[in-house]
Amino acid sequence: MSVKQRVIKPKNQQTKRALEQRAPKLIENTKTAMFVRGGRTSEQVTQVLKELCMLKKPHAVMFKRKNIMRPFDDQTSLEFFSNMNDASLFLFGSHSKKRPNNLVFGRTFNNHILDMIEFEIQSFHSLKMFKNLKVTEGAKPCLVFAGELFENDAEHKRLKSLFIDFFHGETISNIRLAGLEHVISFTAIANKISMRGYRTILKKSGCKTPRVELEEIGPSLDLIFRRTKLASDDLFKRASKQPKALKAKKKKNINVDVFGTTHGRIHMQKQDMGNLQTRKMKGLKRGAVEGSADDNKKAKIDNGDE
Questions:
Q1: Domain 29-238 adopts which CATH fold?
Q2: 73 pairs with which residues across the strands?
Q3: Where are the domains of the chain?
Q4: Contact 101/162 with Cβ under 8 angstroms?
Q5: Residue 214: which of 237, 180, 245 has the closest Cα?
Q6: pTM of the shown model
Q7: Which of 42, 128, 147, 160 could be disulfide-bonded to 188 (CB atoms 3.0-4.6 Å)?
Q8: pLDDT tens-digit readout, 13-57
Q9: Residue 231: Cβ within 10 Å count
Q10: What are the two backbone dihedrals, phi and then psi, of residue 282, each rounded to the nearest 5 degrees?
Q11: Between β-strands 182-189 and 192-203, what pairing exists: parallel, antiparallel or unpaired?
């Protein structure tokens, strides 16, 4: 027996706009991240949450109150907050004797937990410790991943995908060189992830392309793997599926070589070479006298005179 779902119509324009904003779209909105504090947090965890929230702004929601929850034991509270705030990403921070300086990165799909990865903060250097200029708030960062584990290990591959979701910002079609002012680097060594923040400095190089230098501005984080709860391959494939309307249609008989040159193949019908006209230049056309002489000679050959 099928149960019909009741559709509630919006009572005012503000509610209508909010529902339209949450409705499914071909090109989804930029993902929002929640920054949640647990029942007990250390000063270091609180500062990490605040500074990572600054990197994610304006698509970030910082919870001011503490929330007693254990994400790996019960996910209902996080799923409820995710649905209420229309946020598919979250960062949960807590501190206890068993798990000191604890961070949990995660994301949801269809209002249910998809992936969660837990870390221990080994070392942390705040933005305030770097006495130099910072980048513009909301600037789209350039993400750099170093280490073979990001390409070979299944958990690190999923972690790389999670970090890209978390930090990549708005989806854009074009970007100018001066707009690449922020670089976030992730380095994987064994069970340790090093996160560094840099500001790009463009200097004169004597040619059209400037010389690029990196200046560390923070925050600087060293994270140690603790626990993971990852979605199955089938569920992750379903969560990553793109609508058919967004997929680029393949053009037949067109390919691009290694040098970027486009080559096309044209299919033509078989030509009748007997009817091919070859004498198109006026100087090569046969005159009237030449034509009649050739015709007489051909007639003699047919009659057997020669």
A1: Rossmann fold (3.40.50)
A2: none
A3: 29-238
A4: no
A5: 180
A6: 0.75
A7: 147
A8: 887 887 777 776 767 778 999 999 999 999 999 999 999 999 998
A9: 18
A10: -65, -35
A11: antiparallel
